[in-house]
Amino acid sequence: MDEIKLHHRINLLNADYARCIDDDRMEEWPGFFVEDCLYKITTADNHARGREAGLVYADSRAMLQDRVSALREANIYERQRYRHMTGVPTVLDVQGEAPSFEVRVEVPFLVTRIMRDGSMDVFATGRYLDRVVEQGGRLMFKERLAVCDSNRFDTLVALPL
Amino acid sequence: MNDRVETQDVARLGTRWPQTLTRVPYWVYQDEAVYRAEQQRVFEGPVWNFLCLEQEIAAVGDFRSTFLGGMPVVVARDSDGEIYAFENRCVHRGALIVLEDEGNAKDFQCVYHAWTYDRQGSLKGIAFKDGVNGKGGMPQGFCMEKHGPRKLRVECVHGLVFGSLSDEVPPLEEYIGEEVLAKMERVLRRPVEVIGRFTQALPNNWKMYTENVRDTYHASLLHLFFTKFGITRLDQGGGVVVSESGGNHATASIVEKVIPRQEAYAGQGFRSQETEFRLRDPSILDTHEEFGDNIGLQILSVFPGFVLQQIRNCVAVRQVLPRSVTATDLNWTYLGFAGDTPEMRKVRLKQANMIGPAGYVSMEDGAVGGFVQRGIATAGELDSLIELGGENAGSENFRATECSVRGFWKAYRAAMGF
Lengths: 161, 418
Description:
The structure holds two protein chains of two kinds. Chain A has a single domain, classed as Nuclear Transport Factor 2, Chain: A (Roll). In chain A, 24% of the residues lie in helices and 44% in strands. Chain A has three helices and eight strands; from the N terminus they run H-E-H-E-H-E-E-E-E-E-E. The longest helix of chain A is centred in the first third of the chain and has 20 residues, at 3-22. Chain B has eleven helices and 19 strands. Chain B has helices spanning 3-15, 32-43, 172-176, 178-187, 206-214, 219-222, 224-228, 271-274, 342-351, 362-375, 403-416; strands at residues 23-25, 49-53, 62-68, 71-77, 83-87, 102-104, 108-109, 116-117, 123-125, 151-157, 160-164, 192-202, 238-242, 249-254, 295-302, 306-311, 314-324, 327-337, 383-385. In chain B, the strands form four sheets. Chain B has a seven-stranded antiparallel beta sheet with strand order 2-11-10-5-4-3-6, with no helix packed on it. A seven-stranded antiparallel beta sheet of chain B has the order 12-18-17-16-15-14-13, with helices on both faces. A three-stranded antiparallel beta sheet of chain B has the order 7-8-9, with no helix packed on it. In chain B, a hairpin with a 2-residue loop joins strand 16 (306-311) and strand 17. Chain B is globular, with a radius of gyration of 23 Å. The chains are: A alpha+beta, B alpha+beta. Chain A binds chain B through residues 41-43, 45-46, 51-60, 62-63, 65-66, 69-70, 73-78, 151-158, and chain B through 194-203, 222, 224-225, 228, 275-281, 283-284, 329, 334, 345-346, 348-350, 352-353, 356-360, 363-364, 366-368, 370.
């Protein structure tokens, strides 16, 4: 596949992903993942030391849908929004040929959190370590690890990163 | 600040404490003088503070940085195989001696003026002690043995390392109490492995979290996730064990194979019963019976700031550290056991979705302390009400009680002299 085109498509994927969460279209968020996926929020320290547990650990799209249901119907947290800024992706590796390829990508992110009282802070920075595949002509995450730079999380991580 | 005046302030506040364990004045979560007194009277007082896991400093020379309340502490394993802990403060000018979270070292050298300490925290070397070219240096009579950071008493139980600055505190196992100790043992019978470490920064006074941990009342009301899936409800079998001091507790609920009709909750209009919530991937609730007693949830605390938690197969220790009057660090260490099969490990990883800063359950505990801290903003002269189950601060064979919260205040007041 054309390298520039691939980069462009990955950029669009990340832009769509960020808008989906930041626009509070959370019900669409699991749709960025293939059914048999892995989504994990962890930290650089845990990742480097091979500690497997995450703040969020979902190994199916259904688990991501459960996260959304819990957010909407079960969990108590104050009204809040994120603003994701994602940086330029680095393609680390491409296995196979389109449309049955798997691309390993690293993307830096910065997320600010805006609380209902207007307070606004840098909530998380880090990098996404992704395995991206194509399904039905669309790029999707087979794996997305949100590896946060800091080990410390203010109050709670309610919305996904 | 004049120390004597401050002591008087705290003593005066103490006289205003209501005579009963069922009332707690809100100033205790707000007052700077109380906060400073807590460091001396509670954390540095006659208590055992959780420091780290034995497994984290398994080899000779391994060390970890941790805290005793607000005091920075180094825990290290020396060549005799024993664990030592000392204040992380150079005796010269007060700088931190150790700047890393963990590592392995033969000795420790302060970066400021290169004073050196052994793994037990004893001062062993002073740079230019004898001066340079026969000039300067430390006075001849300076005795290194007489100077050093404060050393902690250290005791271990079931792989947990505790430290104390008190000579009066009873031995650790006696301090925890026989009943609570037995509950600790049922979880920590095998060697542990750390599978994750996270810090949740809580926007509230540390005591709101230590109360929350002991509060069996809220779990099934605030945490819808618990109630809906029968992980814990107050109509399940179980009970609360409280140590004689009041400060240590363990609460357990029994797993029931068939979720009974929720009669105790029906018709009371609780939010936790009104919302329809079903999991598309219920594998998060797949549970392996590994403790042999059908106890599906156990929360255990040791005064002041230690928590051991078992929710199904999800095991973690939590360390509660005060950061300021209105800020607390909750350090989570997620555990597996040595010899876990890959399947078992996966079960733990999935169930860990319930705990920590993003936990289906624990995220709410992170937020609710802040709701209280903000709610009481101008209520310092008023009291909170802790009357469920009467005035008892001892064990109960049911959980619709706040006995373990009252137990906390019993131990706290004893330590503070309130």
